[in-house]
């Protein structure tokens, strides 16, 4: 690491100050600077899932694993699809075999065949990281290895993560896991490399039914933003105060 | 799945009903060991402070021992955390880039502060002894003695003044440090409770009572372990003395020991009652308010984990030793049994919090069962298995044995502060 | 010798100094608060670029059509118009330079993702043409009879 003497001194002071009272580093900015920073970001990514359209083909999970180099056979995944079958007796059966990677090609749920006559309603719900505005996973990282970018996506620094698992515990949605190869915390990042390069996220592109879409909340003309602002959308587990940014159309109250 | 491609947690987690794909028991036995060992440290220190700060003279012996023992326990409290990291080589990062909104980030700082307080207190208590050793070993022949003398010279930090005034200053400093140490010890453990209590995603953990419960049970387990170790060592010394034919001395030890034990038992019972009351309060409150999570919590507590919580923890680990200790005509043997049960009870409490908190899915619709790896077949199954836990448990005794070679905490002939 | 009381303190200060010095050498220069919140924006700035540089595997459909206009056109006219090339042909990155032919997923299971009949009310899955995967022409690849680029039952 090259480090001039001036930088060295500067870092010493900054480092000592940061170590002494890190919370104050927020206040050190002038109001104008802070304003410029929040308003400077012209992008706030958001996701829209239309559960009415999802047929549970699992092509999104399949594409995600390939695109993001998550070992194909590992039982973990950045995104997954859940199947809900609500029967007349009031029971709700939920499953997500292989995270939905291979789709749902049998009527069986955990070895139980359900008579179609008994089904009141049944549907599929794709899940992924909610890129919360108040991400509890980021709050609890002891080393600053996970963070929120200015466009609202939560990323994990694989070079800095110590693998304590606190973020995995803190996420109410269970989206985090340890990458089997890198041995660091892993999660969906909306295909950050794709969306910042003008491409669609892998799952969005792979979905033949347009059940998954993504847009920019700061752009009022964005079709996805229009849906989110003009239609009745729902988020998952808002009681945790996380302010999730994956919005759902047609979400059932049975969805966990 | 190839052997080098292991999903952390998959080897010891069995899922039942609907559990999110990425959910596993990520925090296993080492995270049970972590609050347990931290609790022992905090408890041992509080016991020693009862003498140093509050002047409980009859606790002098056990206080001296428990102070040194808490030093031996100290590095072991950090060991489970190190062992459970997926990237242990980066263990220093919480000190380098501490993210203070995380309870774990405080660990390095609180832990180091506490370690320095314990070390300083021991230094003040034993400085006179170190100086005496430096003088005593001056003309002793042999390499061993020369090394010992060198170690002692280092331990004095160059302060050789053993005048009455200087020793009086030592006493005062030790007392102040012991006083400062109590809140820091409680903070060290209270925040271990905070680590769990503040996880809003976990229905079982999230409770503002968690830190307080952790402190209370920490003190219980710390006192119990100190008492137990103290009894075992004293009995061993008495046994050796008897074999050497020093019958009178043996009975003398026994008398002094009984006093210390009686007094410590009273404190133990007090903290035990406080700990149980808080835990029961927490349980009743959850049942009474019956939030969304109560259904799944109830089925974990009263069905899958019933034996672990109500039989092993509350009955065998709390109620039985309580009765054993409170009934009149207590003997040393009965005390030992009660202490072992108390230690077991606190361990079960940690288990039921850490593993129990992960026994149900975030979907509130499924369960996860933890099967602790017994025979290790990889580094991970060693670290997060039975032998990893045994390594952690045995470490404080090994460390104590080494430290005690230089800082004799059990020798009562030594004049200390 | 009056101040021997402070000796442990000097040791403590030396340790803190040691950590602060280590911090300067080990912590990357761009580590800090990059945003308006210490809670959410405390990180190593260059990691954002590292993620942006992550290699993409799936290419655009336009790119496929540049060479395979015939098949793409056929597909677009068919009932399978909603499908994307890479749903079955796999990720296109590196094709054709490094990977000459893409591995096609033509398994029965791949078709059954949508066409195993699940008569689920309130889900569009029930509206898709479907068969019972366990009974219909067992163990046979679907494309032996159905052309995935033009899956019309009337033309069979």
Task: Offer a quick outline of the entry.
The complex is a heterotrimer of chains A (about 260), B (about 425) and C (about 160). Chain A has about 260 residues and is an alpha+beta fold. Helix content of chain A is about 25%, strand content about 20%.
3D architecture notes:
With 256 residues, chain A is of the alpha+beta class. Chain A contains nine helices and twelve strands. Chain A starts with a helix and ends in a 7-residue tail after the last strand. Chain B has a domain at 26-198 and 374-417. In chain B, 70% of the residues lie in helices and 2% in strands. Chain B is built from 13 helices and two strands; from the N terminus they run E-H-H-H-H-H-H-H-H-H-H-H-E-H-H. Chain B has helices at 29-52, 60-84, 93-96, 105-136, 143-155, 164-197, 210-244, 247-289, 294-304, 306-326, 332-354, 379-383, 386-406; strands at 13-17, 366-370. Chain C is mainly alpha-helical and 156 residues long. Chain C has three domains: 26-55, no CATH class; 58-103, no CATH class; 106-150, no CATH class. A two-stranded antiparallel ribbon of chain C has the order 1-2. In chain C, strand 1 (31-33) and strand 2 form a beta hairpin. The radius of gyration of chain C is 30 Å and the shape is elongated. The chains are: A alpha+beta (256), B mainly alpha (417), C mainly alpha (156). Chains in contact: A-B, A-C, B-C. At the A-C interface, helix 1, helix 3, helix 4, strand 6 and strand 7 of A face helix 1, strand 1, strand 2, helix 2 and helix 6 of C.
Sum up the structure in keywords.
heterotrimer; A: 256 residues; alpha+beta; three-stranded mixed sheet; disordered N terminus; C: mainly alpha; 3 domains; two-stranded antiparallel ribbon; 6 helices; 2 strands; elongated
Shape label of chain A: globular
Largest two-chain interface = A-C, 73 and 56 residues
Radius of gyration of chain B: 23 Å
CA-CA gap between termini of chain B = 61 Å
Helical stretch count of chain B? 13
Mean pLDDT of chain A: 88
Strand order of the largest sheet of chain A: 11-1-12
Order of helices and strands of chain A: HHHEHEEEEEHEEHEEHHEHE
Mean pLDDT of chain B, nearest integer? 89
Number of strands of chain B: 2
């Amino acid at each position: 690491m090259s480090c001039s003497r001036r930088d060295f001194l500067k870092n010493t002071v900054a480092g000592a100050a940061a170590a002494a009272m890190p919370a104050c580093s927020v206040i050190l900015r002038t109001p104008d600077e802070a304003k410029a920073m929040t308003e400077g970001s012209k992008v706030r990514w958001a996701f829209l899932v239309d559960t009415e359209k999802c047929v549970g083909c699992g092509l999104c999970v399949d594409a995600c694993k390939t695109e993001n180099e998550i070992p194909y056979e590992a039982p973990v995944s950045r995104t997954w699809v859940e199947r809900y079958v609500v029967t007349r007796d009031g029971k709700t059966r939920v499953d997500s075999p292989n995270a939905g990677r291979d789709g749902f090609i049998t009527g069986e749920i955990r070895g139980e065949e359900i008579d179609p006559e008994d089904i009141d309603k049944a549907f599929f719900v794709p899940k992924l990281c909610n890129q919360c505005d108040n991400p509890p996973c980021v709050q609890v990282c002891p080393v600053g290895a996970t963070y929120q970018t200015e466009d609202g996506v939560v990323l994990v620094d694989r070079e800095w993560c110590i693998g304590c698992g606190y973020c995995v515990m803190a996420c109410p949605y269970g989206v985090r896991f340890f990458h089997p190869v890198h041995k660091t915390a892993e999660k969906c990042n909306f295909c950050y490399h794709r969306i910042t390069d003008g491409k669609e996220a892998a799952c969005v592109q792979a979905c033949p039914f347009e059940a998954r879409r993504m847009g920019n909340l700061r752009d009022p003309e964005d079709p996805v933003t229009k849906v989110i602002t003009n239609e009745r959308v729902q988020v998952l587990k808002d009681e945790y105060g996380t302010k999730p940014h994956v919005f759902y159309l047609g979400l059932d109250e049975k969805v966990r | 799945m190839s052997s080098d491609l292991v999903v952390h947690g998959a080897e010891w987690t069995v899922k039942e009903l609907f559990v999110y794909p990425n959910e596993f028991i990520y925090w296993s036995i080492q995270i049970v060991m972590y609050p347990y060992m931290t609790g022992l440290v905090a408890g041992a220190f509080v016991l020693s402070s009862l003498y140093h700060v509050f002047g409980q003279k009859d606790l002098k012996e056990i206080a001296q021992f428990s102070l040194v023992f808490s030093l031996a326990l100290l590095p072991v409290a950090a060991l489970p955390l190190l062992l459970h990291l997926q990237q242990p080589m980066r263990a220093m990062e919480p000190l380098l880039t501490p993210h203070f909104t995380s309870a774990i980030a405080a660990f390095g700082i609180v832990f180091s502060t506490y370690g320095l307080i314990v070390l300083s207190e021991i230094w003040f208590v034993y400085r006179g002894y170190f100086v005496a050793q430096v003088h005593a070993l001056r003309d002793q022949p042999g390499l061993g003695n020369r090394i010992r003398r060198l170690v002692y010279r280092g331990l004095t930090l160059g302060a050789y003044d053993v005048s009455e005034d200087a020793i009086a200053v030592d006493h005062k400093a030790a007392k102040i440090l012991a006083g400062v140490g109590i809140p820091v010890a409680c903070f060290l453990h209270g925040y271990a409770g905070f680590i769990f209590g503040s996880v809003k995603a976990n229905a079982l953990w999230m409770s503002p009572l968690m830190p307080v419960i952790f402190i209370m049970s920490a003190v219980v387990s710390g006192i119990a372990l100190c008492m137990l170790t103290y009894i075992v060592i004293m009995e061993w010394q008495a046994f050796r003395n008897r074999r050497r034919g020093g019958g009178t001395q043996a009975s003398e030890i026994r008398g002094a020991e009984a006093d210390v034990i009686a007094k410590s038992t009273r404190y133990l019972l007090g903290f035990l009652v406080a700990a149980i009351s808080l835990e029961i309060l927490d349980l009743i409150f959850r049942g009474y308010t019956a939030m969304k999570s109560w259904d799944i919590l109830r089925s974990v507590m009263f069905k899958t984990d019933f034996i672990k919580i109500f039989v092993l923890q509350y009955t065998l680990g709390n109620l039985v030793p309580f009765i054993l200790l409170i009934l009149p005509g207590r003997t040393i043997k009965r005390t030992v049994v009660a202490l072992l049960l108390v230690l077991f009870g606190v361990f079960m409490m940690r288990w039921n919090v850490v593993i129990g908190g992960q026994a149900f899915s975030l979907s509130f619709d499924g369960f996860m069962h933890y099967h602790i790896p017994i025979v290790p077949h990889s580094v991970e199954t060693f670290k997060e298995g039975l032998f990893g836990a045994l390594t952690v448990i045995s470490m404080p005794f090994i460390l104590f044995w080494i430290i005690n070679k230089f800082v004799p905490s059990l020798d009562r002939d030594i004049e200390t502060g | 010798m009056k101040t021997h009381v402070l000796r442990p303190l000097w040791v403590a200060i030396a340790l803190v100094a040691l950590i602060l010095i280590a911090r300067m050498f080990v912590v990357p220069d761009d580590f800090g608060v990059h945003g308006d919140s210490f809670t959410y924006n405390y990180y190593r700035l260059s990691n954002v670029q590292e993620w942006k540089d992550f290699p993409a595997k799936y290419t655009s459909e336009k790119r496929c059509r540049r060479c395979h206009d015939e098949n793409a056109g056929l597909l677009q006219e068919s009932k399978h118009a909603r499908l994307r090339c890479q749903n079955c042909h796999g990720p296109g990155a590196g094709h054709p330079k490094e990977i000459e032919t893409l591995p096609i997923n033509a398994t029965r299971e791949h078709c059954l993702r949508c066409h195993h009949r699940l008569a689920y009310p309130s889900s569009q899955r029930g509206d898709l043409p479907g068969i019972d995967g366990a009974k219909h022409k067992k163990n046979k690849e679907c494309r032996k009879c159905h052309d995935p680029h033009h899956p019309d039952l009337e033309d069979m």
